[in-house]
Amino acid sequence: MKKLFLIGLFFILFGWIITVSGQPAENHETILRIGFYNTENYFDPFADSTIDYQQFNPGGDHHWSAARYKTKRRHIFKVIAAMGGWHGMDIMAFAEIENQFVLEDLLKSSPLGNKNYGIIHFESPDHRGIDVGLIYRKESFQPLFAKAIHVYDPADSSLKTRDILYVKGRVGNDTLQLFINHWPSRYGGLMATVSKRLLAAKILRHTVDSVCQKQPNAYILILGDFNETLIDKGLQWVVQPQKACNISALPPHYDFRLAQGSIKGASGWTLFDRILCSKNLKCAGAHIFVIGKSFHIFDAPFLLEQDVKKMRLKPNRTYNGFTYHGGFSDHLPVYVDIMLQKPDEP
Known about the structure:
By secondary structure, the protein is of the alpha+beta class. It is 23% helix and 29% strand.
């Protein structure tokens, strides 16, 4: 069984590489595949004296090394290649990347470099030195504007967390607006951290409202690791049908039906990694729209392993605590397909 799966994965990757090098542009004119992946600590292997967090420096508690970094880089490429399939990923957003170098190196050191990807990234004030960022195919998405939205607390200057990445760009003849999120974690306890995520939610919603006041029909896609479910306060603040642009959460579908969420903790599977969108992106027949049932959790077998304690499966992580495990990530990636309507022929 394992041998058959490895053979199948080989053909997926091989086919994708052929796609990268030679598939006609017409196959990418009507559909965009947009994904998000919390990579679980994609740190470079170099010491960074500007950040107090030293655990992923050489000699740090996690014993990070060039060899482990290269394994991580190779794993991330495999995820992007397999998730993109024959089509490939048009936009791929990330959480828990250390800097722009790791994205540049990902493109340079894998077949992704053959597909003319661009990078959008800003350094955030996060205390661990991790950021969000994205790569995009230049023929599929043309950035018009990008900024880092700082998540700050006027009453607590000690809060240092990830920025929200806001990117506006052209897709076909229309404009798509993206918000990439990695909200504060639950480390320290749910009740002790809920206010931090609510703060991020309010800042996100305020920015979305500002966009929608000027462009009521804006096409908005919100992706990220929210460290919350839809019943929690932060996401409830963002997903408010009565507010501008009518932001709603897309229902999940699982590619292999092996998982029941995007992350698995002590209480079981949870869906923290989500994609939200504005109402008019759900209108089939609009200039651009989300294809029905196309928000997917990519739960491929190679991203999972046996869960001895709870039976069934769990994400194949890079680390278990401070112990190097050599897997992919503690999160599963997610993606959505967007249809672009071709303009009428003259």
